[in-house]
Design brief:
alpha/beta; Rossmann fold; 2 domains; 6-stranded parallel sheet; 3-stranded parallel sheet; 10 helices; 11 strands; 39% helix; globular
Length: 285
């Protein structure tokens, strides 16, 4: 029987817990977490994400600051702004919303953020500590997936987990975290000749390939746990907003065979935002 891994519900539960933590900090006169976000240019999706993150902060009682800059800002000027925040003791966490304009080196910006304020978990220092299993800021999406598995008490020990995708943001860190949860981990990617050979043997599949409805029902075994990280806007003139959201999983054919599955939207997305709040709360401890 198929069950939903409901990210909306779990994120609300965790939000409530974070809010109680913040109220306890306030009551004892301690510092309230403060998250800063840098937004460069006027990309619609980026503006939506940053606004949502600011709203999340407000809901749990965090302080938040959004710094907006024109797309024409130079790389040197942006790095200067990052250093200012690094040196500001009032701010505990910093995210720089990606993508950045082409003339700015994203890697350089990521590495300039102090690893002590890198609540996105992208700094090489934090990535290294994650792979070593040390306490650190975890990349938000993989961290959100782990929270989801933990909440629903999905057994991972001794299970075969297949991850589709090897990005620095999801695939690679996800493999490290699932190894820490005692899974046998296989990572498939664009150069894997026949991904279905692996997915049909998997107890847990994490699809993070960025291709809408890539994983079909005939690619999984009965009872698999399926986590859909993908989210792509597909144009649809019949809808008021002009598009619909599709994941990397063909839900209609995969869901009947799976034991647990995340919906899109409402699965991994809300958990990514929650993970950012959890990292920011950790930043003051």
């Amino acid at each position: 029987m198929m069950n939903l891994l409901n990210g909306n519900e779990v994120s609300q539960t965790l939000k409530h817990e974070i809010k109680l933590n913040v109220e306890a900090l306030k009551a004892s006169g301690k510092k309230i977490p403060h998250l800063a976000a840098i937004l460069v240019g006027s990309d619609g999706a980026s503006m939506t994400y940053v606004a949502a993150k600011a709203k999340d902060c407000e809901e749990v009682g965090f302080n938040s600051t959004v710094l907006r800059f024109e797309a024409s800002i130079s790389e040197a000027e942006l790095l200067e702004e990052v250093v200012k925040i690094n040196n500001n003791p009032e701010i505990d966490g910093l995210i720089v919303q990606l993508p950045l304009p082409k003339h700015i080196n994203e890697k350089k910006v990521t590495e300039t953020i102090s690893f002590k304020k890198d609540v996105d978990g992208f700094h090489p220092m934090n990535v290294g500590m994650m792979f070593k299993g040390l306490k650190t800021f975890l990349p938000a999406t993989p961290y959100g997936v782990i929270q989801l598995l933990d909440h629903y008490k999905i057994e991972t020990s001794g299970k075969h987990c297949v991850i589709i995708g090897r990005s620095d943001i999801v695939g690679k860190p996800m493999s490290a975290l699932m190894l820490q949860k005692n899974c046998t981990v296989t990572v498939c990617h664009s150069k894997t000749p026949d991904v279905s050979l692996f997915t049909r043997e998997a107890d847990i599949i994490i699809a993070a390939v960025g291709i809408p409805e890539y994983l079909k029902g005939d690619m999984i075994k009965e009872g698999a746990v399926v986590i859909d990280v993908g989210i792509t806007r597909i144009e649809d003139a019949s809808l008021t907003k002009g598009y619909k959201l599709k994941g990397d999983v063909h839900f209609d054919s995969v869901a009947p065979k799976s034991s647990w599955i995340t919906p899109v939207p409402g699965g991994v997305g809300p958990m990514t935002r929650i993970a950012l709040l959890l990292n920011t709360l950790q930043a003051i401890s």
